[in-house]
Amino acid sequence: MAEETKLFGMPAEKGRWLLVVLGFIINLCLGSVYAYSVFKVPVQNLFKIGAFDGGLPFMFFLAFFAGIFPFSGRLLEKVGPKILGIIGGAIVGLGWILSGILPAMIPGIWTLIITYGVIAGAGVGLAYSGPIQVATRWFPDKKGLAVGLTVAGFGGSPFVSAYVAKALIDSVTVLPTFLYLGIAFLVLIILLSIPLKFPAAGWKPAGWTPKAGAAVAAADYESSQMAKTSSFWGLFICFTIGSLAGLMAIGIASPVATGIIKLDSAIAAVLVSVFAIFNGGGRPLFGWITDRITPRYAAVLSFVIILLASIGMMFAGPGTTALYIICFAAFWLCLGGWLAIAPTSTATFFGIKFNARNYGIMLLAYGIGAILANFISGFANDIFGSYVRAFIPVGILAFIGIFIAFFMMKPPRKAS
Fold first, then answer.
1. Which distant-in-sequence residues (6+ apart) come within 8 Å of 338 by Cβ?
2. N or C: which terminus of the chain carries fewer CB neighbours within 10 A?
3. What mean pLDDT is reported for the chain?
């Protein structure tokens, strides 16, 4: 019975919120990648490279994070969230630590790509899935809100990590900063993963029953069945567009502030931290919106915001600080929103039973978005000498996304 289940020595209906807190803090560590714009210029200066090459560690990090997620989902079903979190935390810490050591011994951007992009990115892909699935399974009544609060730590991480990273870079330079943060992440992620666990099969909060018709909408799809539906492809394409817009803004937030708006680097670092609040807050906000108005209309709303922000950035220039803040806050907000809309929609459309592996496949859209974001922003800056041109294709894609979301993001009809 649900009322007999205990978590942390209290009824599960209360104790499950502590699992959300643990997931939030784990994601604070994992989401430090979103502070990469603070690292980008020091990395470019260290290796004497251009904007595109300087963004490669960030691109590879996000690509391997997303690329390993299908494997992570299947592994989670076998070993559970605690073991997977410990393994992932160890790899995350190792990747950051090696990023602080090996580039000094083997100079070159490709060393950092391997240590930070491949190793640390893969570790995040392993550690990230556990807290999301824990929140999804313990909160059948509030999936969007619980998942949104859990992953809010990932989006909000730069509010802390950008300050810390900037202070460390100024004090000890960029490579030791990777080392010190890696040691902290290694310890924190492993310790906080130990209490994570799933409820017993069929558990639900006392007194809660699914809404009429919810069982039909949440029929359990295996991954092969899911991939044959238009709902999957609609969500996948929309997630790619939403990720692309937000990740591009995250990767270039600091260079745009200093290079186009002509702000001081210290102020740029502060603004990255401010934007992180919107990224983190966008997750529970859009999770709540998704629960209330359906994934389709939550997606449409996000694309309207992205489109308006893209148009706004086309008028950016020296001194347009307010415009920059509003537009980049919007981009970061919507990226956070998509990291709540996508997992909530996947569970809502395709059920809970195979959700770990299904969302693992869905998260590949995030990796594709990361790759496209770096190509668009890097080439725009290297070819045209400004990041402003990069917002033209982003605006066009957001406009297209409105129609894809409206017509394709809806629960599928499962064939009998």
1. 238, 239, 242, 243, 246, 286, 302
2. C
3. 88
Q: Which DSSP string do the residues of 218-269 spell out, in sequence order?
A: T----HHHHTTSHHHHHHHHHHHHHHHHHHHHHHHHHHHHHHTS---HHHHH
Is residue 204 within 8 Å of 215, Cβ to Cβ? Answer: no
Question: pLDDT tens digits for 163-199?
Answer: 899 889 999 999 999 999 999 999 999 999 999 999 8
pLDDT in tens, 16-46: 999 999 999 999 999 898 788 789 889 999 9
In 3-state terms, what secondary structure has residue 10? strand
Return the SS3 of 207.
coil
Mean pLDDT on 203-214? 69
Rg (CA), the chain: 20
- The pTM of the full predicted model, rounded to 2 decimals, is 0.77
- The token pair that represents 394 in the structure block: 């982003």
- Backbone φ, ψ for residue 172 (5° rounding): -120, 5
Say which CATH architecture domain 11-197+214-408 belongs to: Up-down Bundle (1.20)
